[in-house]
Amino acid sequence: MSAPTSATDRTEPETDRTESPAASDGFVRGLAQAIGGPIGEHAAAPSRPGRFWTAQRIILALLCFTLAASWVQKSPCQDGNWQENVQYTRFCYTDVLALYYAEGLNEGKVPYRDHPVEYPVVTGYFMGALGLPVHALGERYPEINQGTWFYNANALVLSILAVAAVAVLLALRRRRPWDAAIFALSPALFVTATVNWDLLAIALAMFGVFAWARSKPLVAGLLLGLGGAAKLWPLFILGPLFVLALRSQRIRTFLLALGGAVFAWIATNLPVAILYRESWNRFFELNDTRPIDWGTLWYIGRYLDGKWNTGGGQGPFQWLSDNVPALNNLTYGLTILACAAIGLLCLLAPRRPRLAQLAFLVVAAFLIFSKVWSQQYVLWLLPLIVLARPRWGAIIAWTVAEIGYFTAFYAELLGAGGKPVIPEGTFVLASTLRLLTVMILCALVIREIWRPELDAVRDTYADDPDGGVISGAPDAPWITKLRHTFRADRRDAGAASKDPAQSEEPAPVS
């Protein structure tokens, strides 16, 4: 007779196990019925040694196809001849080409030195590193279209960064490679890959998460700091790292990551801040002075204010629109409160949450309460939701809402200078659906944090595959006491709600 199986044996997955989406995802399993159902238990492994088309190679090939299709979709705008609003009618607008001229790169101006740049410094360096050689080439060969060359150079490098980011996703989910297909096949990536330079920050953030997962906190901090110097959001990942380190008694490890992030951010920013202070301040000034932007929570509220206050009164959202400092304080305050709630959730959850779950919640909270939510910000959430909750159904619903917003946004831009293309209410509806689907994703992630048995990733891995030194570490004793106290309070509250009279009597002593 074989020995009984322990609890540890039951929860520890086999090391060579590769998860099939149709086996673990109800939505994919339903679709698979059209082609005969999920793969059988005794079927030949699709990634067996010697086979060229492994899951990883298929996903990278699909990603290259998506990026190539995105390049074709943006091709009507590549020559910069944006007559008759072609950039909106063909949905091909890109900041990359527009800012080549707006930032003076076509004249050989060095970012920050000769012209203030509206982005953090690593993005400015990136723009200059590609833009100045293109300008020099144009000086030598006047017949070339500099804008086209600049866009294509950026599209190529950003595509390489996207491939690198997906390679990291595959490395982080070796047992679940098909999760990365959510990113590789995303319509959101198709329409926004080269709208701006966000893939630069995404690649740096994913490399940072990978370094943390491989127990290299200093390298992780350096990469997250570089990512934060390209776009601010990668620095938000430090918050989840802190509360996870606090719960697992790994604060010293977190401090290494924090020190690396601070060093990388200062090292990249300090030269520009010292030499060209006014240009460096441009990014922060724009963030302070920008009013309510398209499609945000505040935009929706302002529209509803106008509908409800027909008597000429000013509603709260309309007042915030006219008082930007108050709007800034409110957005910062709500974001901080949301992050504090996420931190408390991490400490009270029955099992330590995974890094990707908390990172997704923090970045999503920032976007939900932000006064700016540009179309390409969808890319910030895409790799995080792949790592946090790789369930196809909810992600597809969110993607549909994002594409609906993308379409409505371009229609809104077309009507901004003349006759409206769509009713304002239609654009607000699209904005609301995008907001609601992101909030639903947050609720689903929170549900799986509170009920870890529902987490598909935990069904494949014994602990957090992104956790690094935190993975497998015991909780701090004070965390255990806090959770026990919280559970006891909840039981007492539940008993009181069921029988108020009984709650007034002293509890029996056992």
What report would you give on this structure?
Helices cover 65% and strands 0% of the residues. Helix 11 runs antiparallel to helix 12. The N terminus and C terminus are likely disordered. The chain has one domain. The chain has 25 helices and no strands.
Low-confidence stretches: 1-16, 32-36, 499-510
Mean pLDDT: 89
Largest sheet entry:
none
Total separate domains = 1
Radius of gyration: 25 Å
Task: Give the N-terminus to C-terminus distance in angstroms.
Answer: 41 Å
Order of helices and strands: HHHHHHHHHHHHHHHHHHHHHHHHH
- DSSP helical segment count: 25
Strand-helix topology:
Elements: H1 7-11, H2 21-24, H3 26-32, H4 55-74, H5 86-89, H6 95-102, H7 121-140, H8 146-172, H9 181-184, H10 187-192, H11 198-213, H12 217-228, H13 238-248, H14 251-275, H15 277-289, H16 297-308, H17 316-322, H18 324-348, H19 355-369, H20 378-388, H21 392-415, H22 424-450, H23 456-460, H24 477-498, H25 500-503
Feature tags:
mainly alpha; 510 residues
Give a brief outline of the structure:
This protein is mainly α. It is built from 25 helices and no strands.
